[in-house]
Design a protein that fits this description.
Helix content of chain B: over 70%
Number of strands of chain A: 21
Radius of gyration of chain A: 26 Å
Oligomer: heterodimer
Strand content of chain B: under 5%
Structural class of chain B: mainly alpha
Largest sheet of chain B: none
Distance between the termini of chain A: 51 Å
Largest sheet of chain A: 7 strands, mixed
Distance between the termini of chain B: 14 Å
Order of helices and strands of chain B: HHHHHHHHHHHHH
Amino acid sequence: MKKSLFALLSSLLLLGAALAGCGGASQGAQQEESKPQVLRINLHSEPPTADPGLAEDSTSGGIVRATFDGLTRLDAEGKPQPSVAEDIQISEDLKTYTFKIRDGVLWSNGDPVTAHDFEYAWKRALDPATAANYAYQLYYIKNGEKYNKKEGGITADDVGVKALDDKTLQVELENPTPFFLELTAFYTYYPVNKKVVEANPQWANEAATHVGNGPFKMESWEHKSKLVLVKNDKYWEKDKVKLERIEFSMIEDLSTELSMYENGDLDWAGEPLGDLPLDAIPALRDQGRLVTQPIAGTYWYKFNTEKEPFNNVKIRKAFAYAINRQAIIDNVTRGGELPAMGAVPPSMNLNPEPFFKDNDVETAKKLLAEGMQELGITKLPPITLSYNTHDGHKKIAEAIQDQWKQALGVDVTLQNTEWKVYIEDLHEGNFQIGRMGWLGDFNDPVNFLELFKDKYGGNNDTRWEHPKFKELLTQSAVETDPEKRKQLLAEAEKIFMEEMPVAPIYFYTMSWVKDDDVKGVIVDGLGNVDYKWAYIE
Amino acid sequence: MLRYLGKRIVYMVIALFLIVTATFWLMQAVPGGPFTSEKQVPPEIEAALNAYYGLDKPVFQQYLDYLVRVVTWDLGPSFKEKASTVNQIINRGFPISLHLGLQSLAIAVFGGISLGVIAALRHSKWQDYTAMVIAVLGLSVPNFILASFYQYIFSIKLGWFPIAQWEGFEYTVLPSFALAALPLAFIARLTRSNMIEVMNQDYIKTARAKGLSTFTTTVKHAIRNALLPVVSYLGPLTANILTGSFVVERIFGVPGLGREFVVSISNRDYTVIMGTTVFYAILLVVLVLLVDLAYMLIDPRIKLADGGKE
């Protein structure tokens, strides 16, 4: 007995050591017979919530988008199409929207979806007592911000959303907001079932009590382990939904996720809801299996414009121009990103031409010399580049540190801190150069520019402020002509790049691998995923 | 005996109180909070969040509230996972970690003792060398590498076991072996050296001389005495295996409690940090007490501290 156990153990371990040396990629499982309509995907982590009012991350967003439906839904081109609303009237001044709710739209428990559910859901998210992090997504609605911030005695009744009857929802906005219809496809704008929510505050936490109005409904939710969605027979457009089941596993380890995909246990590995190991990406790309899609996001280095030497615009520009972005993309990130020579992602089509030349060392040298003269210094003070603990950020920082040394002869110290400590340092202005990224919340350039409107705005960190830039943004908020508005924003971006409070590095992409028979999964320009039209061929 | 137990329990409560207090103040001292994030929210929303979770109260008040929560074992909501309370997280995760831990413990103890005994009985023969090579591998190869080896060989190449997740017995095999490797190796070496020592002692020689079979000598006389050091290793080992499974749980996608420990800290999920710390602290002090009691039962020479000299 003991001997056989011994023999088993020793042979297992030796075999393991021997085989591990062989290495090499394994081939994916092949299944030729027609498959049931089941999609198996990995979530990088447990969705923090399945409540559209509380959701604020992409994982929760993926689940919520599958189990709920908004007034509109984004199509494959990212354009909002009427969904729960069958008809939308917009007033002349673009400030009043009237939505007509489609007939026969039901909750997964059989209740009719009414305009009151929308009114309730939006006011619930705005109510400070709900403590919804994304309440600010609803600030475009008249008095939404004031109600959320408890300003000037504004109550829920003053908020500009009203159900005129069961079928009609009227929304008043603060300003003409050209992207408002897109917002109604965003999860903070989804309805919730008033009866269900009021009866049980914990309704969204378990599959048994979760009620949605989307193409899928939750069958089971084994927390931290598995979440299963099945087709919702009460969905108004159920004929368009072909998938019978979506099975989400929750594997945090990136290599395990890829192994499961290679082994045929998953149909899809990688973004938007999972993730691929950085080291595996070049090989997958070489094999032609990697799918890469640009998304509206910019990776940039922020300068602290209040501290020497980056209080000088020429020095900021010198550092930005000297970066060789293409080299970083080719050798470090290797995810097919696009070099960024502007702040606003190209998909938003604001200023199609780059503002400067990548790796423009000559101009950079000149600007550095001029900048130092302006500051009256002959030697730069010690410069520190900060980033948060992450392999990718570290490699990028090291590459750029080297590029600055080569191009400008500047010695830069790297400083690495844990994420939350890092964020706090940045928000408090306790840095010289720091990495950061911004992923668009909605598909409009203002989302990228308004971050830098106010010196002490929550996400500015650079302490940069510019009167003209501010004014242009303020004007764009009330401009009803889309063409004029675009010009105002384009002008604002020009000023921004002229002043260079941030050095853009690259525009983000998402990468994944999937089985060939998985079709119809929509990943939009913001990186949001929608499974409504997905099917297995 | 009762007096001794009572005294120990009082000490345990004091120790727990100190742990709770230290954790709470250390946590407060760490920069960044649960709502610190890249997309910073307007201050009013952050205030609303703080009010919702009671973080707007004075720190000392929060500390008192927390003590009350620990005593009533209502550890509050998770900041990060809005769908769960800390009690739910512990109730869901711990049974799984316990299952994995006990299974690994069984493998480590039986596998390790068997290997050690075989190695000792076949001292300086090929069985001994093989067993010790395994032990060295187990001690020196980190379990996350071992885990990836297992996945590659037994799941991808041989298809015997699933790569990851936690849905039935076959899912538990690879993580248990990965987690058991290190203690198994340690126990094997410990057993071997003790066995070799014991086998050379006079009473074993006497037993042999009396004509007892090798089996009887080994099982009845040698192993029992050789295992005392192994038992004393079991207490810390149990605690270690129950708390230290983070890496293995992560690689095999096991929804256990090990991950919460680590993940909650980087999330600044205060209530989960506190909850898991208190929970594991209780586990640890109880295990230490049990080990002390077990010593007493196994070795009558060890006396209660209360009853006079140690």
